[in-house]
Specification:
alpha/beta, Glyco_hydro/deAcase_b/a-brl, TIM Barrel, five-stranded parallel sheet
Length: 316
């Protein structure tokens, strides 16, 4: 079967990071070895500082647009205590804004990652079960050397230890969980895992250390059960030129392999629901447009008005 790698980015998309995304996704430089298709990433967007025209461009290239929240409130108790209706105002309304201002079909926006990796427990999961296809917030702890977790549905609830309170206690048939499999820093004695790839300490400071950090974690997946490998981070982590160089070197190293595919989170779940042999997967048609380094955002970037319309939630 293919070894999937998921490149995801949390936060706003705007002029401050589009140059990097264009470089990363440039199809003249980065294609899968067997299929010849370009790579794709998933963007868990928050509405604050979001450039909707940039979002439209990423989507047109074949990337996935997913959700975090409208407001970037840094008050953790707020996210831990709001009810289902309030979650809908934060998340479902953001999807309506993406449709209105980025021209991204609501049917294409099916995933969620909670602010501060907070799901809201059953209050948040009721919203997700009604409105979305998957959550990618729940942390799945494991010891170094233990096999990572595959995506699964919440038919029987969440059976792991709760790392970020509150966690869901109910069952939500058909709702997918894209687990946050923890990663481990390289060359440390404590083996303290991290949920997001940019949270492992100490952070690498050279291109070589960055490459080896990602490579060593990838090989734990690749040489065991081949669970989809998560590279979940914030683009700000790659502002450091050495880390950026190491990250891109890692991506290019992956693309030298015949059986590795860098795809969106939704594509991983599509495959999980309908698996196929590696030989058949390599023949799938490419999606999205070619991405070239010479492309630039056109002027007149559109931003949403400050007044938030509760369109989708009130319409159902």
């Amino acid at each position: 079967m293919p070894q999937f790698v998921m490149l995801t980015f949390d936060g706003a998309v705007n002029a401050g990071n589009m140059a990097f995304y264009r470089e990363l996704l440039d199809t003249s430089r980065r294609k899968h070895k067997q299929s010849g298709c370009g790579i794709a990433a998933t963007f868990f967007t928050s509405a604050e500082y979001l450039d909707y025209q940039a979002v439209n461009q990423l989507h047109s290239w074949g990337n996935e647009i997913a959700l975090k929240s409208i407001r970037a409130k840094r008050n953790r108790p707020y996210w831990q205590t709001i009810n289902t209706t309030e979650w809908e105002r934060e998340v479902v309304d953001q999807r309506a804004m993406l449709t209105a201002f980025a021209n991204v079909p609501g049917s294409d926006v099916t995933g969620f990652r909670g602010p501060f990796l907070i799901t809201g427990g059953d209050q948040g999961f009721r919203m997700l079960h009604r409105r979305f296809r998957y959550d990618s917030t729940l942390i799945h702890q494991r010891a170094r050397g233990e096999r990572p977790f595959y995506p699964y549905t919440m038919d029987f609830g969440f059976r792991r230890s709760c790392n970020v309170w509150p966690c869901p206690e109910g069952s939500y048939p058909g709702l997918w969980v894209l687990p946050i499999n923890v990663l481990f820093p390289k060359h440390t004695e404590g083996d303290l895992p991290c949920a997001m790839a940019d949270a492992c300490l100490p952070q690498p400071v050279t291109a070589e250390d960055t490459f080896e950090y990602f490579k060593s974690n990838f090989e734990e997946f690749y040489t065991t059960n081949r669970a989809p490998f998560p590279v979940f981070l914030h683009e700000a982590y790659l502002k450091h030129p050495e880390r950026k160089a190491g990250y891109l070197r890692f991506v290019d190293w992956l693309l030298q392999k015949d059986d590795v595919y860098l795809v969106t989170a939704s594509e991983v779940l599509r495959f999980m629901a309908n698996p196929e042999p590696l030989s058949a997967y390599a023949k799938r048609p490419c999606t999205g447009q070619n991405v070239r380094m010479t492309e630039h955002l056109s002027p007149g970037r559109r931003r949403a008005p400050t007044r938030i319309l509760h369109q989708e939630a009130s319409a159902t």
